[in-house]
Amino acid sequence: xxxxxxxxxxxxxxxxxxxxxxxxxxxxxxxxxxxxxxxxxxxxxxxxxxxxxxxxxxxxxxxxxxxxxxxxxxxxxxxxxxxxxxxxxxxxxxxxxxxxxxxxxxxxxxxxxxxxxxxx
Length: 120
Prior knowledge:
The structure is a single chain. With 120 residues, this protein is α+β, with helices and mostly antiparallel strands. The chain has helices at residues 3-22, 31-39, 78-88; strands spanning 27-28, 43-49, 55-58, 65-67, 76-77, 92-96, 107-111. It is built from 3 helices and 7 strands. It has a 4-stranded mixed beta sheet, sandwiched between helices. It has a 3-stranded antiparallel beta sheet with strand order 4-3-5.
């Protein structure tokens, strides 16, 4: 197995172990909650499904998500926007396949601090 593949697997396993240890108060797979947290700079690490497209928009003010039926000229992938916001606040972002992510969710976030009650 090539060295970069080994490094990726190791990093992903470590991040998933950390996610499992910190849930439910400091880790989530809930998209809307993660959007709020990313907007507030509360995401420390984020794993995203590289193929996930969740059409909608994320508020610049509070991170609230408005979902759309399809991706068009007025909407974008909410998962991509969350990743962008997380990166801009210094979070570590790791791309993965859906099968590799907790609960096969489009994303999994590890939070810097308790950001409030996480919806189940």
